[in-house]
Amino acid sequence: MPGVRDISAEAFITAYSSHLKRSGKLEVPTWVDIVKTGAYKELAPYDPDWYYVRAAAVARHIYLRKDVGIGALAKLHGGRNRRGNRPSHHGDASSAVQRRICQSLEKIGVLEQGPNGGRRISQDGQRDLDRIATAVVEAEREKEEEEGEDEEEEEE
What we know:
mainly alpha, two-stranded antiparallel sheet, 5 helices, 11% strand
């Protein structure tokens, strides 16, 4: 049975973020349309669904590792801090955004607090993510089969 490790990150995150949006269970804060995702950024994200995408990326990251803290997630989602004519350095993402995403995922039962700090994936969350990964693999197989049939029809 295919799992989250067996498919590309992009395919899984796209599928899981659309699942989170469709389900409507994920609690989205009111400030998501105006907040920057890091101190090094100049503007807020252009994508109106960025919160769902980030939540899917956080869930996948925590699924692949054991206990992950807010600081590690902030470092992961950070980027280049452009400092004018001085050399660029790495800038961490906003810890408040990461914390709210983890709290939202905890509320719907995907994550739970670890015994020695950090967050980890819950059993329900693991089952949910594996189900989404399996659906993505099946959709890719169906797409490949359709393309194979189309090529056979063109050859005839």
